[in-house]
Amino acid sequence: MTEKRNIVIKIGSALLANQDLLTPRFGFLQRLLEDVMRLRSQGYQVILCSSGSVALGLRMVGETPETAGVSDKQAAAACGMPLLLNAYKQVGHEYGIEIAQVLLTLGDFEDHRRFLNTRNTVHRLLEADIVPIINENDSITTEEIRVGDNDRLAAKVAQMVGAQDLVILTGVDGLYDRNPDDPEAQFVPEVTDVSDYMEATKGKSTLGTGGMATKLQAANMAQEAGCTTWIAQGEVDRPLSAVLSGERRSTKIIAHENPLSGWDSWIANRLQMAGSVVVKDTVFDTMAERKRAVRREDIISMDGDFTRGDVLHIYDKQGVERARGLSDFTSEEIRVLVSNPEAEAEKLLGYRTKGEIIRGANLVPLETRHLLWDAPAAIAEEATGLGG
Ligand code: GLU
């Protein structure tokens, strides 16, 4: 490999923490980091997205996975993070790997300035040949501002650093077309359209947060950004290199051939919905050419309180989400513009404006390949009125 290739590796809690004792699994870390060393010698720049802080900290706060509530887990994460990093540091030393910790929250992805700032930090670490170990800052995040699971966190990181590969290491060897306990279940080696398997993947792991469904959502985000995802068993020798070389089976979710640009992918893959609008069908006729803005007269209804620069989800009258785009106005301004269709925008807002709610360049059509959010109930029922 001549060019450096960025690879993100997501490691689930069950691999890192002993299920009964809730202590670090050094044997696993050794196999992992030995293989990270191998990948680095092949020209990969490795970024780890590691879970495990909550699981490793639970005992210190006197809890178990079954008993812990939200604030127990937040405290446990604060206790477990140094234990986790210390384990990586010690084992990494054996293989000549320097590590660094980066703790993120949802806002570091969703706010574009913070997104770029975080990206610079990760790139700087890679430049210095250091392996960034990324986790969500669980101690300070609350439900509303969480990514919530490290599968999607890892996909967001992959998108952020322009990674070509994302390996999600877990306790199973990949995806099955139905519950793997079912004797009829078939292993799925390769996936192009993840929506084919979303139904089959309900269910959760015991120690971590995600199940197979969040892994597929993560893979969908990654593939849109041009990154291929491997879901693979972590509990083996050479857990990474044997999968990348095809020696061991795994489920490979193939990157799209025409990935979204970095800007489009940032708009389309936001996890938090600031607001939504229902628009007339004519908006969609020419949207693919990206010249058509969403104008005030296109808006049928709107939901949410948001500010300029927030990403809106754009629905058709049937309640199907068709696009996402950056709002050029606050929700209050849009309400005023839409409720007074006859009045000039300048008179209503006090400044000159073309009244383009979302500019064409900031409007990303969602093709069928994108996993959609559920339409908010209000939209599914009936698309009228300008509720708050
Ligand atoms: N951030 C959590 C932790 O470090 C894990 C989240 C997950 O497993 O997806 O424990």
Question: What's this entry about, in short?
Answer:
With 388 residues, the protein is an alpha/beta fold. It is built from 14 helices and 17 strands. It has two domains: 260 residues, Carbamate kinase (3-Layer(aba) Sandwich), CATH 3.40.1160; 114 residues, PUA domain (Archaeosine Trna-guanine Transglycosylase, Chain: A, domain 4), CATH 2.30.130.10.
Task: Write up this protein.
The protein has 388 residues and is α/β, with parallel strands linked by helices. Helices cover 33% and strands 20% of the residues. The protein folds into 2 domains: 5-264, 3-Layer(aba) Sandwich (Carbamate kinase), CATH 3.40.1160; 274-387, PUA domain (Archaeosine Trna-guanine Transglycosylase, Chain: A, domain 4, Roll), CATH 2.30.130. The strands form 4 sheets. An 8-stranded mixed beta sheet has the order 3-4-2-1-5-9-10-8, sandwiched between helices. It has a 5-stranded mixed beta sheet with strand order 13-11-14-15-17, with helices on both faces. A two-stranded antiparallel ribbon has the order 6-7. Residues 374-388 have low confidence and may be disordered. Bound molecules: glutamic acid.
Q: CATH superfamily membership of the largest domain, which one?
A: Acetylglutamate kinase-like
The main β sheet shows up as:
8 strands, mixed
Specify the CATH class of the largest domain: Alpha Beta
- Overall structural domain count: 2
CATH architecture assignment of the largest domain: 3-Layer(aba) Sandwich
Q: Please name the CATH topology of the largest domain.
A: Carbamate kinase
List the bound ligands: glutamic acid
What's the N-to-C terminus distance?
A: 54 Å
The number of helical elements comes to 14
Shape descriptor reads globular
> What structural category arises from helix and sheet content?
alpha/beta
Spans of at least 5 consecutive residues with low confidence: 374-388
